[in-house]
Amino acid sequence: MRTSAELREGFLAFFESKGHKRLPSWPLIPRAEDRSTLLISAGMQPQMPYFLGLEPPPAPLTTTVQKCFRTPDIDEVGLDGHHLTFFEMLGNFSFGQYFKQGAIEYATEFVQEQLQIPWDRVWATVHAGDPQLGLGEDETAIGLWEQVGLPRERIVPLPSSENFWSVGGPGPCGPDSEIYYDWGEEYGCGDPGCAPACPRCDRFLEFWNLVFMEYELHADGTLTPLPQQNVDTGMGVERLAAIMQNVRSVYETDGYQAIMAWIEQESGVAWDADETATKAHRVLADHGRGMTFLVADGVTPTNEGRGYVLRRIIRRAVQQARKIGLDDLWRLSDVVVDQMSAWYPELEENRGQIREVLRAEEERFSETLARGMRLFEEVAAKGDVSAEDAFTLVATFGFPIELIRELARERGLVVDEDGFKKLMEEHREISRAGGESLDLQQAGEFARQAGFVTEFVGWEKVEALTQIGALEDLGDGTFLAKLRESPFYAEGGGQVSDQGWIEKDGVRAELASAYRFGDDQALLFRGEGFATGDRVKAVVPWKTRFPTMANHTATHLLHKALQEVLGDHVRQAGSAVRPDKLRFDFTHPQALSVEERERVEEIVNERVFENSPVHAFFTPIDEARKLGAMMLFGEKYGDVVRVVEIPGFSRELCGGTHVRSTAEIGPFVMLSESSVGAGVRRIEAVTSGEAFAYVRAKADEADELAAKLAQARKEPKKEVRAAELDVVEERRNKAGDVEIIVMELGATSPEHMLELSDRLMQQNAPAAVVLGSRDDGRVHLLVNLDRSLEERGLDAVQVVREAAALVGGGGGGRPTMAQAGGREPDKLPEALAQAEKTLLEALA
């Protein structure tokens, strides 16, 4: 058992033979209720609700190989032989079954008999005790290690900083026992007392952590026992492979070497050719795995959250690939898929999507990289990178600050990051949403201690006579409550939490937040006068629930309609279902044509008019697969699932609320279709009353425009020519057959700008015109596009909004003509340059 593949399968098979249920890895995206990290960063993280007793585990004993991702180490990857972002954790878990003795005996058997690691190379550390936690030295663990034959001198008690495991804050925790491999005295510091956790050398490698999870750590630092004693273990595949293959760096193990062999073949540069090549190979091997797995789990490149993590590692990998002459880096994903899909089938299932997302992001960044590198070299020639130079590279030319930092470090330069952050903060328009917040851990603890599970009745009802089964007054005019039966939907599956209230004897408390814990929930209310045991009426207002249901069912129709028009590669990549509108993100490489948009809208409305029934039912997941039910990209499902079906058209797994028939959706109107990242598009739409209001407003606008045109025909018209305007600057570029005209004007009204743009469009067709002017402390922007450009994926609204963001404003319009305003006239040249850049890149 030496290769990474053999280690994965050998570990899982061993614990299966000991009665553990083999479970697939959870996605890298945490559960909706887990807001502790952007991505799964520990093998036990998906098991948290089971350890806390919030949910029953899938089996009393389980074993997994869990994919993990650590974001803090991104900039360190490549600098040494051990830092990683993506890694795998082998784990065996006991929920109230065996404890310290079982964990240590199983670990000993696996190390000695399966791995056949020489026993004289093995050390163990245990918890030395902690007076602040009220815990003494873990004598039980010491005795158990001695029972399995480990000499006392190789059992090392260490403080809580080394041998007490927690999630980094409130949550499940406990003392642990770590197993170390001794590389030999020749790698030590020479101290006769050298032992695991030695701060002076790396003679010892920790490769397996046995956590005896029996406590819950609270915000005040106190410990209380968990409902049962649990075991959580974690062993890194990469570290274990280094031991079994007798190499000191994880990058020298078979998993990474297979990727590096491909890189060497494609680039012609060996991984150990020089320092630059070694760093590049390490970055590409690690980030290549990470970006492949992230896309397979539904993450797409964006400028925020986990999407930004993906964008960072793709762009860092592209930059390193160019250093060794490697193009088309996206092809590396096939190496990862071929190597690891046996344990992670989602890789093969999404191979095409992974390729497309990575290819698109690489192409998008390549031009920015080439231009940015030239500009950075000019900046670096002056010495340390000033805040102003860093800001210009980032804000004007889209060069990532992380890359600026790394390039500066390679050249021994310093970046004025404090000054840069200040400039960026001044540049951004920050919006903060108010409202109550509550620690999720506190809500989860309250839900668990209530001793019962709330029955959700909101699929059938918007009102329920129920009882407050548990209540906790928070002392600020709010309280937590658990209802025996609840009509309130807690956010999940893209659908927002319900609004509503509870009432009794004329007293009302408004729902502030709803928290989901698997099939259970806890509710936060604003109000007073309620107590445990009260009989109350729980109400979800129909005026918000009905349009939410209509929008949710419409997303199912939209999903299927997109597949019919664009192809089966279309997959849902996110959604937001609210009362006022729906948002649907989906995988597709380019903008929809006018014809495609019209056909999608037509199909949805045809199904609405058919008045088809909407059925929902529960079934085992294997049966749902046989029925061909669509499952969300990167979602994790239980053994029994809820299927929502529109007979003859759509069948999806979904836990949300839906209308009874498609006719209740009412008219479906697509508001916009745009890009939200490489290979991912977004549609926003309205249904029901909002759609009717939208259509009515458009009709009123048409009537008003017709009246203005009729009046204009009766009045003499004064032509506005470019010569009559104050043209501050004019630039013209040619992109294929399209003339791109950019003008900065003096004080000019939006009406005159529109008239000038129309004239320029007629004289230079096909053309794209961008105009900007300053007038009385305000900025006016206009983008006018030839109609043929809309069919090529360009959207004037998107172009003008990106530009307007640089002048502190916003705007809108239609795909061929959009206008915007802003409050920062000094930044008008930047805004015009941004619009010009967007057009040139789109038409290249």
Descriptive account of the structure:
This protein is α+β, with helices and mostly antiparallel strands and 844 residues long. 37% of the residues lie in helices and 25% in strands. The strands form six sheets. Strands 1, 2, 3, 4, 5, 6, 7, 8 and 9 form a nine-stranded mixed β-sheet that branches. Strands 11-12-16-15-14-17 form a six-stranded antiparallel barrel. A six-stranded mixed β-sheet has the order 25-26-27-28-30-29, sandwiched between helices. Helix 7 runs antiparallel to helix 10. The protein is globular, with a radius of gyration of 30 Å.
Keywords:
37% helix; six-stranded antiparallel β-barrel; 25% strand; nine-stranded mixed sheet; alpha+beta
What's the structural blueprint in terms of helices and strands?
Elements: H1 4-17, E1 21-22, H2 48-51, E2 61-69, E3 86-95, H3 100-115, E4 122-127, H4 139-147, E5 155-158, H5 160-163, E6 164-165, E7 171-182, E8 204-217, E9 223-236, H6 237-244, H7 254-267, H8 275-296, H9 305-323, H10 332-340, H11 346-349, H12 351-380, H13 387-396, H14 401-410, H15 417-427, H16 440-449, E10 455-456, E11 463-473, E12 478-483, E13 485-486, E14 501-504, E15 507-517, E16 520-526, E17 535-539, H17 542-566, E18 572-577, E19 582-587, H18 594-609, E20 615-620, H19 621-626, E21 640-646, E22 650-653, E23 669-677, E24 680-686, H20 688-714, E25 727-735, E26 738-745, H21 750-763, E27 767-775, E28 778-785, H22 787-791, H23 796-805, E29 810-814, E30 817-822, H24 828-843
Parallel strand pairs: 1-2, 4-5, 10-13, 26-27
Antiparallel strand pairs: 2-3, 3-9, 4-7, 6-7, 7-8, 8-9, 11-12, 11-17, 12-16, 14-15, 14-17, 15-16, 18-19, 19-24, 20-21, 21-22, 23-24, 25-26, 27-28, 28-30, 29-30
Helix pairs in contact: 3-4, 7-8, 7-10, 8-9, 8-10, 8-12, 9-12, 13-15, 17-18, 23-24
